[in-house]
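Pipeline run #58 for the internal structure catalog. This entry was flagged by the ingest filter as a single-chain record with no existing model, so it goes straight to prediction. Upstream metadata was stripped on purpose; only the residue string is passed forward. Reviewer on rotation: M.T. Logging verbosity set to normal.
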Amino acid sequence: MNSGVWEEVGCAKLWNEWCRTTDTVHLTPTEAFCVFYHLKSNPSVLLCQCSCYIAEDQQYQWLEKVFGSCPRRDMQITILTCRHVTDYKTSASTSSLHSPFLKALKTQNFKEPPCCSLLEQPNIVHDLPAAVLSFCQVWKIPAILYLCYTDVMKLDLITIEAFEPVLSSGSLKGLVKSSPQSTEILKKLVATNEIQSNIYT
């Protein structure tokens, strides 16, 4: 996010049994659990990078604060998150699963074709990603969630690269520029950030 293309516009920190802080007012970007950026070339494009667990009883308040400051008209949401592959339910042999792999779940108003197959029942989405998608469904906001099933406990380079097909989707295609240094940038990101299982946009 330090490429000069994105600019930080806000941050948030919260307190729960997993994320504890004594000062929720005076925050620096390195301390913040949720950092908000906008695209310099198109400020209407916002990105939220969330690196903490948000408890169930905090999710509605979080959603109201985030979406309450944005016009919901002409909005489209893309959510990126990951879960361990052991959470994936399938009748096929687990040895046939080549992780990481992507699954998608979308709201009724999202009309673009997803860049991977849809998440099958009885699999479900958890925590804040599920809350964001449910919020978008209720308010008829076009939204799609891409869930990466991975065999590692913390985000690594291979898991990040699994999201690459998403970058060619209709809503994101015009926002992404190829960079010969992209792999090195991702390696530094993984090495310097302790991200607890979820990335959101």
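catalog note: Residues 194-201 have pLDDT under 50 and may be disordered.
catalog note: Residues 56-68 form the longest helix (13 residues).
status: ready for reviewer M.T.
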